[in-house]
Design brief:
Length: 141
């Protein structure tokens, strides 16, 4: 059985694209699904290598139930985050999912996680990929 990873991103999709690129290169056997809160974010993740992608609140709600791992900015579990792109229903769906959640801190849009060292987007994506690789090893072993 393949592990399913759900990448969720919004706004311009820069983080989601970077995550999709990294995951498809390092873990090609993984089922990767990308969901953007808007079409720009979805298109960016498709450019990043996502073969399956969708857009919008309902897609987040449906796919959160099916994923083994959900990865994205910390705002995906905060209602009205990402400048209002994360609806309360989407935040609840992600938060209540049985999936392992890998949340990447961001100081944008009024949500700040303290105690985290300031690193670039690429380094955060790499750290997330390493955690996903660990989980994939546990999933298959």
């Amino acid at each position: 059985m393949k592990m399913t990873i759900l990448v969720i991103d919004g706004q311009g999709g820069k983080l989601g694209k970077l995550l999709c690129e990294s995951i498809t290169k390092k873990l090609p056997e993984i089922e990767l699904i990308a969901v953007g809160t808007n079409t720009t974010a979805t298109a960016a993740m498709i450019k990043g290598g996502a073969k399956k992608a969708a857009t919008g609140e309902n897609s987040i709600c449906v796919m959160s139930k099916k994923a083994d791992v959900i990865v994205g900015p910390v705002g995906i579990v905060i209602a009205d985050a990402l400048m209002g792109e994360i609806t309360p229903s989407a935040a609840i769906a992600v938060g209540q999912s049985n999936a392992v959640k890998i949340l990447i801190p961001s100081d944008r849009c009024g949500n700040t996680v303290v105690g985290i060292k300031a690193v670039g987007l690429a380094e955060m994506a790499e750290e997330a990929l390493n955690k996903i690789s660990d989980i994939a090893g546990d999933f298959n072993g």
